[in-house]
Specification:
By secondary structure, the chain is mainly beta. Helices cover 6% and strands 54% of the residues. Strands 1-2-3-4-5-6-7-8-9-10-11-12-13-14 form a 14-stranded antiparallel β-barrel. A hairpin with a 2-residue loop joins strand 3 and strand 4. The longest helix has 20 residues.
Length: 336
């Protein structure tokens, strides 16, 4: 059992360093909380309101230095023009590693509709940002101890990178594609024995459809998201189901997301080698009250062998402002 836990800790540290700490904003399920802009720059300003979203995520309560994430994003149109701007700042901490960064986004929306009733829109978005990675080694050694691989200081490195993507909305259907971390940067190596990664490209593909019965206050939105990491050739898929209920004060909504890795991780199990694939179940619930948004997410890792049985909690607070009238006759919550 100790060997299993050791192997999993090594895998957790490795994948956290490759897949989360250096890629920019980690890709969880918070995009389902009315926050697609967090992962797709082309979604900046796509809605009829400007949006501010604040998120706080905490993993593994009761575990010291467990991963945590805070993000603040804002996006909106420039008047009635097709141009939109956005920005994201974030802090991602994972044990002795942490990443802070910020992105600025430019988006442009092309309307193919002959009128303002039928939604037919193609959007492009470009985000550029700086990321600072830190490794705090100040507590690695006891007073008087020496290790040539440990500097005993807080080390840092800064990179610049670009995300680019596009979105297409046609009545009740939508699709998004984003290439993250397009540029190759010099590998981050805090000591001579460390790993270096200069290819952080990640590709995201999302699609969904929203439907309801005529005159009903209920709407239903199935969707999927596929993610592929270029350097490690890892891929995962999200299968999502979301439901909305119109209310006098606004809207309540909720759903369930299932994430599964398409690649297995091997670990020692007794005298043999076993394999398992990452699995997350994420229920979520939210409410739109006038121009305010409140949402809560809980993620449960459903693997046989895992680091901790505790879940991952996330809270989202939002505010919509500079709202225009709803132009389109469609089941399109992200736009209307």
């Amino acid at each position: 059992m100790r060997l299993k836990k050791f192997c999993l800790v090594v895998l957790t540290a490795l994948f956290a360093n490759i897949g989360i700490a250096q890629e920019g904003v980690p890709i969880y399920s918070d995009y389902l909380l009315d926050n697609y802009y967090l992962i797709h720059p082309s979604m900046a300003g796509v809605a009829n309101c400007a949006k501010v979203r604040l998120t706080a995520r905490q993993q593994w309560f009761g575990v010291d230095d467990a991963p945590s994430l805070q993000t603040l994003s804002i996006n909106g149109r420039l008047g009635d023009s097709p141009v939109a701007l956005g920005g994201i700042i974030f802090n991602d901490a994972n044990g002795f590693h942490s990443t802070v960064g910020g992105y600025a986004t430019f988006a442009y929306h092309l309307m193919f509709s002959r009128n303002e009733i039928d939604l037919n829109m193609l959007s492009f978005g470009l985000s550029a940002g700086f990321l600072q990675y830190k490794l705090d080694e100040t507590t690695f050694l006891a007073p008087g101890e020496f290790d040539q691989l440990i500097a005993g200081i807080e080390q840092s490195a800064t990179n610049f990178n670009i995300d680019f993507g596009f979105s297409y909305h046609f009545v009740d259907f939508y699709a998004h594609f984003t290439a993250k971390n397009i540029l190759r940067n010099e590998g981050i190596n805090f000591n001579e024995q460390g790993f270096e990664f200069d290819n952080l490209r990640t590709y995201l593909l999302s699609a969904g459809y929203t439907f309801n019965k005529f005159g009903s206050d209920w709407s239903y939105e199935p969707s999927i998201m596929y993610m592929y990491r270029d350097a490690t050739e890892e891929s995962t898929i999200d299968i999502n189901a979301k439901v909305y209920r119109e209310m006098d004060f606004g809207k309540i909504w909720g759903g369930l997301s299932y994430r599964r890795s398409l690649d297995g991780a091997e670990f020692l199990d007794g005298s043999g080698v076993s394999s398992q694939k990452l699995q997350y179940f994420t229920p979520f619930i939210g409410v739109d009250y006038n121009n305010f948004v409140f949402a809560y997410t809980y993620s449960y890792q459903a693997n046989t062998v895992n680091f901790n049985t505790g879940g991952f909690h996330q809270i989202t607070l939002g505010y919509n402002f500079n709202c225009r009238r709803e132009k389109f006759e469609c089941n399109c919550p992200a736009v209307n």
